[in-house]
């Protein structure tokens, strides 16, 4: 992961991802100490309780990357369902920043509270997302993640920092440009 993280830092400070010094500094602080910790992620009991319905960054290497038309190496995900070997989540990077913010506003209407602190969680499920017409934008964001292919710890995004995370162009798409991915996503709703 060292080379990947080094490239990520170069992109971050080269303004490919973050357009302002404040956003670069915010993301860099979030990424300090990012190391692989699969064991902690796979302990389903307590992890699921604090994990589902919150927002995270992490590095990912898909199992089926050869078959995928494209994928995101650094997803920004709201996990919605846990499985023994991974989880289902909404990767907000599959939408352009303005649409991410709109979708997140809709998702936050399903929050357990309005504190916007570590206790705030979105009460979401796959069934809710595919059946709620107001969440149509979320459909192209639904992705399955396997614990064995996660290459870092999760970087928790505080609910009061969701706007910063939404507008940060930190996506790391492989095999396609972000413009192509965003256009394909718009075609799904």
List the helices and strands and how they pair.
Blueprint: H1 2-13, H2 21-31, H3 38-42, H4 44-51, E1 55-57, E2 71-72, E3 76-83, E4 86-91, H5 97-108, H6 126-131, E5 142-146, E6 155-157, H7 162-167, E7 173-174, H8 178-186
Antiparallel strand pairs: 1-3, 1-6, 2-7, 3-4, 4-5
Taken from the alpha-carbon principal axes, the silhouette is globular
- Can you count the helices? 8
Beta-strand percentage range: 15-25%
Number of strands: 7
Describe this structure in words.
This protein has 189 residues and is an alpha+beta fold. It is 37% helix and 15% strand. A 5-stranded antiparallel β-sheet has the order 5-4-3-1-6. Residues 35-49 have low confidence and may be disordered.
Descriptive key words:
two-stranded antiparallel sheet, globular, 189 residues, 37% helix
Short description:
The chain has 189 residues and is α+β, with helices and mostly antiparallel strands. 37% of the residues lie in helices and 15% in strands. The protein has one domain.
């Amino acid at each position: 992961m060292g080379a990947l993280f080094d490239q990520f830092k170069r992109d971050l400070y080269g303004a490919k991802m973050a357009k302002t010094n404040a956003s670069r500094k915010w993301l860099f602080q979030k990424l300090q100490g990012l190391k692989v910790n699969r064991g902690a992620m796979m302990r389903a009991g307590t992890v699921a309780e604090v994990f589902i319905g919150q927002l995270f960054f992490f590095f990912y290497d898909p199992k089926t990357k050869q078959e995928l038309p494209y994928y995101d190496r650094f997803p920004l995900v709201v996990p919605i369902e846990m499985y023994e070997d991974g989880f289902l989540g909404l990767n907000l990077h599959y939408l352009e920043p303005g649409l991410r913010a709109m979708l997140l506003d809709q998702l936050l209407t399903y929050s357990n509270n309005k504190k916007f602190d570590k206790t705030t969680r979105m009460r979401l499920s796959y069934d809710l997302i595919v059946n709620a017409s107001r969440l149509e934008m979320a459909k192209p964001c639904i992705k399955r993640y396997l614990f064995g292919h996660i290459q870092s710890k999760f970087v928790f995004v505080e609910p009061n920092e969701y706007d910063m995370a939404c507008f940060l162009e930190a996506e790391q798409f492989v095999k396609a440009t972000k413009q192509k991915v965003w256009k394909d996503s718009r075609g799904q709703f």
